[in-house]
């Protein structure tokens, strides 16, 4: 149905032409579910944009053919492409909120598509739009028809986007990272929905993702892309059990699973022995009845409801839950960026919850409690070079000046594996993994005892995630610090933590040693989290 | 997308200094220069705008030294001469050389507009930054004050200032500055507001920065790129305002050469066919405003390190 031969896409940039896609071939049969897997910069999204002919300005298909049911997509006129988009080939975008017009009711947005492709008239458009919403299992579709995107949750928005994409019964649907930014249980619900609809309507689908586990679960065939080239193609089980190309092996290894050590994420040959870290007996952080209540428009919102837990010296604790469960509020209170409504946080016996967050910046304990932020890009000042970012806490908290700062900055860069020659670059000139290292180096600059890791790998490719997680494991041994690892993914938390706390709706529903919680989860919510994580086919299957 | 311009703000220049300080200075300086060259080359309009700006600056500094005639010297023997080889822009009703007057006027017009814009940039940035960062009552109060200022017509305010403090160039600068404060304050407020809970702001707090430091060194410099566009547009308006005010007799007074006055005086002679009196100062005014308007995008690209790759 779709046949791509030698497709090359190039972008004009300041430094000359960049080839994003360098001659790829693949075919897609009717009813087939193809996965394109690759890390950022591999050209996987560009490939799909080229098919839809919605490349950014400066992008151009340089060579090759893309034939869809006999139509030459490369040379089709813009008028023909407008008819093809939506009716023949449709796309589900990465960020559902950005893909919806924020000031129009979602029902009207679906009507627009229906009427553009003459699938509905003014009189029956509303009924058809509601039908489309029902098809994506939105409850109470008639009421949701009137909703604006901001009134819907992320998962709901993605369902609307799917309804939009499927409204005109396309033959091929391209899903570009459809579940990025969604919770793990929502991810499962959305992917199951897309999969059901694709199968029921006999459509073909292309799933673009960085997550090999996800692709293997929902695709019949996977192509692995790297630097604009297809390095390997095959069915998911074979790819997982017997990867041929070195890069595929690296990806397969780096995908977190239910079992295996943190070192197993690294490519074979780079797996050095991991020294065990020492967990002390003395409590470092003792949280007692910590609560946070916000004054919402419709009464108080209890974001965190009197939670208590202890982190010992050198211990790593995982805090797991979905967005809105209160884990970010908890970590903000622990790092003293936010004042608690009630309760205490004892740091080595001293209650720091009673100190106002506004003046904690000048408190002597400021240097002892630090944080690595979720989004490395957002947490680095765009106008500060890597060196300035790392040096900032040295000037402000450690009172260092002159050569001492330079020396310590370079030491920290070396410790976190950040290349010293890149220190004078600005954040936008660094890769995601390098930015994550700058964030970690900055947090470690003041020699803290306690580090909060707020999903430090959420925005990273799996192979980079593997490196960063291993770096964190090494640093823990070397520096003897405690971590609070905040995440939504138990499979990742498992790798680094001794103890895990599961939160739901602002309360702790389960806590215990990692192995116990993973193997014999007591609470229904923990079991749901565990089953929602995409499972890679195990090697033993073959 | 964000870097270096000589700006009126202390915060900005200190930030620039720290940006280049610990880093090997020679390397980053050449980087800034290479970036400047790149910005000028990438967009020819920016290149032209900067070239015209260079000519304006040259005229402002060296104008009085290079003009062929004394701009104030009257010559009864050559009154209202049309443009000729001896008098490129002709002469006015007192026999003064229009070309000399137009060139000499550049300095005064630039001083008025740059001073007014610099004043409103500094005051507006400070007010807007504090309001955007602190929010709450500070923000609400400031916004209502700004609304009041925005409702005031410039000419009415200028007349008030002149009536109260006397008719001087300095007072005209103050009036123009006050009128422009809201534009900067509003812009900075919005830019600061969206960044006050950004990851890098929180990270700066964790690094032990005080609120004032975070605002001055972390958040404010990030607001500079859109500010540069505002500054360049504003310079254009300020020149027009200064000319407009002197046109109605406020601020600059004859016989001082100033584009606005020259247009005002020349307007009387257009009816009788002596078009050159008003045309040439008007044309200079237009070119100056156009130059500043065209410079905006280029200035923004220069202060934005993300434009460098």
Automatic annotation (TrEMBL), chain A:
One of its GO terms (molecular function) is ATP binding. One of its GO terms (biological process) is peptide transport. It is found in: Cell inner membrane. It is a peripheral membrane protein. Gene3D superfamilies: P-loop containing nucleotide triphosphate hydrolases. Keywords: ATP-binding, Cell inner membrane, Cell membrane, Membrane, Nucleotide-binding, Translocase, Transport. CDD domains: ABC_NikE_OppD_transporters (cd03257). It comes from the Bacteria. Residues 4-252, 285-530 form the ABC transporter domain. GO terms for cellular component: plasma membrane. SUPFAM superfamilies: P-loop containing nucleoside triphosphate hydrolases (SSF52540). Pfam families: ABC_tran, oligo_HPY. Belongs to the ABC transporter superfamily. This is ABC transporter ATP-binding protein. It comes from Thalassospira profundimaris.
